[in-house]
Design a protein that fits this description.
A nine-stranded mixed beta sheet has the order 5-12-11-10-9-8-1-6-7, sandwiched between helices. Strands 3-2-4 form a three-stranded mixed beta sheet, with no helix packed on it. The chain has two domains: about 110 residues; about 230 residues, no CATH class. The model has no long low-confidence stretch (mean pLDDT about 95). By secondary structure, the chain is α/β, with parallel strands linked by helices. The two termini are about 35 Å apart. α2 packs across α6, α4 packs across α9 and α11 packs parallel to α12. The protein is globular, with a radius of gyration of 21 Å. The structure holds S-adenosylmethionine. S-adenosylmethionine binds next to β6.
């Protein structure tokens, strides 16, 4: 079962990360053979597929590499200046697991997948512009469920450099992002995004202003995706300059509290990206109920929106969906890849 989960997720690492693909698929073979990976994964055998044990295993190894404690493996990892040699990668990875078996097991068991991907700020920024415009330009009260290190809580502080030389957001930002858009958000892009406030929760928040927090988030980036690593490092510098504390809370409890009141004169937006699969069925049900209850109270002067960027069932792409209350709008704004880019804007009715 675990080996199958490893193989399934290793396939989805291609074409983006041949390194992560190779590590996880070799580890799957090692699991079948009862090798050291089986001992490192002890206690995680019955984890739900949605918790993606293979990615947690790869992240544990990357953690040791970034921390300078696996020099033989580090020579394969571009995130620390190495170059992969797929012929010797697994022997070096296996030796690292043998040497640090207890710590790999502890990291795999303790950590949920925390890919706080700031590329998703592109769809978020465009989606917020559309949502705000559809309610007459009200400023946005942004509530992020599953915010991880909160790196997507600064969508207005990113420079979005479009192909034709247009720059949206903050042109002088520490974080210069090519959002790789086809088409444009269906909104007046000459108007800056007005953010009233930002808040986020996570069951396991990461303090990205600390070295430990930065190491933790970096370990989940696939090590041969150098541009992604650079993006993350820039986003973390931005976070240090503009800290926002992500509250430790489950999404449903937090939403019940945050949505108890919908303030006048602002658009309350509940946003989540690539977190829904990690929530339990019960948590999802309660989250939906909290949202439905608040939606029934939304007014023209205190509207509510749901903006999500999540994978669609059995497909390899992600969709940006927007619902607005009381307007009753339900839109699919576009689709893109898991890390938020490239992204194609194409408005259609949803549902
Ligand atoms: C793959 S990460 C995505 C992080 C962020 N949304 C992004 O797109 O960059 C999933 C996050 O969801 C969080 N999470 C999982 N279940 C949760 C829940 N029930 N309530 C709140 N956060 C949750 C995890 O701790 C993790 O930080």
């Amino acid at each position: 079962m675990l080996a199958k989960l490893f193989r399934d997720i290793s396939a989805s690492c291609l074409p983006g990360s041949p390194l992560t693909h190779a590590v996880i698929s070799a580890a799957a073979d090692d699991l079948d053979a009862g090798g050291v990976t089986s001992r490192a994964m002890a206690g995680s055998e019955r984890d739900r597929p949605g918790t993606v044990p293979g990615l947690r295993f790869a992240a544990a190894l990357h953690h040791l590499v970034l921390d300078g404690r696996a020099p033989a493996l580090a020579k394969h990892y571009p995130s620390v200046g190495g170059e992969p040699n797929l012929d010797t990668l697994w022997p070096d990875a296996e030796a690292t697991v043998r040497e640090h078996e207890a710590e790999v097991r502890q990291l795999v068991r303790a950590n949920a997948v925390q890919t706080n991907e700031v590329g998703r700020s592109g769809p978020l920024y465009g989606g917020l512009l559309v949502a705000s415009e559809r309610v007459g330009g009200l400023p946005v009260r942004l509530l992020e469920v599953g915010a991880s290190g909160g790196l997507n809580l600064r969508p207005h502080k990113v420079a979005y450099r479009l192909a034709d030389g247009i720059v949206l957001g903050d042109p002088d930002s520490e974080l210069q992002l090519d959002p790789e858009w086809t088409g444009l958000p269906p909104a007046d892009l000459s108007r800056p995004l007005a953010l009233h406030s930002r808040a986020g929760c996570d069951v396991d928040p990461v303090d990205v202003t600390t070295t430990a927090g930065q190491l933790h988030l970096s370990s989940f980036v696939w090590a041969d995706m150098v541009a992604r690593m650079e993006r993350l490092r820039a986003a973390m510098r931005l976070a240090v300059a503009d800290p926002i504390q992500v509250e430790r809370a489950g999404g449903a409890d937090w939403l019940e509290r945050q949505l108890a009141e919908l303030p006048d004169g602002v658009l309350t937006v509940v946003w989540h990206s690539v977190m829904w699969q990690y929530a339990s069925p019960n948590e999802r049900e309660r989250g939906r109920a909290a949202l439905a209850e608040a939606a029934a109270r939304a007014t023209g002067n205190a509207p509510l929106a749901l903006l999500v960027y999540e994978p669609r069932r059995a497909r390899r792409h992600f969709e940006l969906l927007l619902k607005l209350w009381p307007a009753g709008l339900s839109l699919r704004l576009g689709q893109g890849m898991g890390h938020g880019l490239p992204f194609t804007w194409e408005e259609q009715p949803w549902g």
